[in-house]
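Notebook B, p. 112. Complex prediction, attempt 2.
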Amino acid sequence: EVQLVESGGGLVKPGGSLRLTCAASGFTFSDAWMSWVRQAPGKGLEWVGRIKSKTDGGTTDYAAPVKGRFSISRDDSKNTLYLQMNSLKTEDTAVYYCAIGDYVNYWGRGTLVSVSS
Amino acid sequence: DIQMTQSPSSLSASVGDRVTITCRASQGFSNYLAWYQQKPGKVPKLLIYAASTLQSGVPSRFSGSGSGTDFTLTISSLQPEDVATYYCQKYDSAPYTFGQGTKLEIK
């Protein structure tokens, strides 16, 4: 069974940093392109970024609002995906979902990040 | 970057109605388009990918069509359990932008 479990969310002050973790199981993680998607309270879905598999280059792409502040990485030996978030802004407040692929057939349950002073 | 605009933003229809939601792209692209359903408090669910391919287990009353800049999601006969917000997403190349969502209610 495919499982994605996010962790690392919490309350942080504007300008602060946070690292989210996604523990994956039930599929060949090293072959998968992985994405992060967020949803602000009461708002729509927003694609955050994606990392390709290492065999496909391992490159990353980001949405414009987070480019230069967020960084996605992966540890295939641990079946784990990361989202490093720096220079956080209040508008980054959202539930952050870990997801498999470009179009998403599997989602984690999400982890809430709140940015507030 | 290509922008994705859904219409309408909200929709109220009766049980049994045929419902159509449109997703328009600011530039044309191939059929790398997905549709999702999100019920309140739940994780999104994939309905359709490649513009028209029904995800396994999704009721056949859902269908997708379109290419280029205009894509549609159709529910052939609206059921009470279809109350949800629906999103389109392009995934031909990054950024994999979502539409802003269409909230569907029962009249």
